[in-house]
Amino acid sequence: MSAVFVRGLRRQYGDRVVIENLDLRIGEGEFVALLGESGCGKTTLLRALAGLDPIDGGHIDAPGKPAVVFQEHRLLPWTPLWQNVALGMETPEGRKAAIAALREVGLAGREEDWPRNLSGGQAQRVALARALVREPKLLLLDEPFAALDALTRIKMHVLIRELVARHRPGVLLVTHDVDEAVAIADRILVMREGRIAASYQVEGSTGLRDTLLQELGVESDTRAA
Amino acid sequence: MTIQLTERNTITAAPRKREKAKLTSLQLNVISWLAPLGFLLIWEAGSRLGLISPQVMPAPSAVAATGWRLIANGLLFQHLGASLARAAVGFAIGGSIGFALGVLVGFSRLAEAVLDRSIQMIRAIPFLAMLPLVIVWFGVDETGKIFMVSLAVMFPIYINTVLGIRQVDPKLLELARVTGLSWKATIRRIILPGAMPSILTGVRYALAVAWLALVIAETIATTRGIGFLAMDAREFLQTNVIVLTILIYAAIGVGADSLARLLERQLLRWHPNYAKES
Questions:
Q1: What is the pTM for the complete model shown?
Q2: Contact A66 B178 (CB under 8 A)
Q3: Among residues A38, A46, A191, B203, which one has the fewest Cβ atoms lying within 10 Å of its Cβ?
């Protein structure tokens, strides 16, 4: 069974067509990264999948409600961590689940703490816990690590791989970071002008990074590989 | 070839000279009271030496004695109680209406279109200018006074409630949608707490104007309340009672402000700005 199945998706703002006839399928437990230049429609696609924006054509078929982690943590500052994680299900069972989810992201015992006491990386981990506690079939990540420092980002990459391996949601990661995509995805899609322009399976190939940079219009790679 | 580095830059931790410079907060607190106390002493001395006429400004000791006399015969608390009751009832009525209208207009653009212009027009009237009309409408009994306080309180609460609701981070509202939060839960968990700092600013401001409205309303044909005490004293040129009532109004104003601060500290414990203050 697939985590999401998209057929002929179209999305436009007024006369400007942002996504045209887009097909996409993400399998259960599959980690897909979506690369593309700014304005190529990748965030529009994620918002359509999340149900935040209406679609103008085609159909999206996803079992259950997808969970989203945004670039900003979007924690409620007036609410302790466990209630942030269990938002909308603040029952004794919800609390138990939230505490377990916080433990999973390495924040055991912090359930009564407040968002203002967290570092950027910790806050983003709470946002991950909030997404995973809902056991989504589809997890949408909208550049969730972009605002983190390099070291924290690498730790988050390891964490997210572990969590996805355990919970097996289908994942769509929107990013503009080629190295991040290669490091954590199973499959990488390149989006251009509202379509999926290319698709690559990641199998530890060293040439993939250069190919992807070429796809994104970066002529020569000046950095040492 | 070796380069000899002869100069060494060493930084050692110097013991801090604490005891020399820093005054404790208690000491600073004591110092802050010196000027008002000195002022009182000079005032008292001036009165005793006959430099200040008791008709113009009674000595602090005379005011204190008057206060004590009115406490002893129970009159002070009777009048204070009447004033506080008016303020409380007026605040409750005006505050509830302001809050309800604020919530309505904050959430609905339609309600804004229907209500906001009229409310802003009424707000443009200085509420004190309404006083003659209020007397015609309600006569000189309690209703008119409570009406004045309610009117004064309504607008700051209304404006800050609308503002607070409108300023709730749209990103958090988006979060509510993706987590499938119900409409009720969105209001309770996101919108009201998000609007709370602004609403409390409105409460604080409303407490101040409520007091102002009360002072004015009470000076008109009253038989009870602090205002009556002052007007009655004026008839008999009891300057010491007049000064006493002014001091009571000041004290209650300070009390109302501390109440608002307390409320802020309790309800906004999560807020970094208020957490530091406590």
A1: 0.77
A2: yes
A3: A38
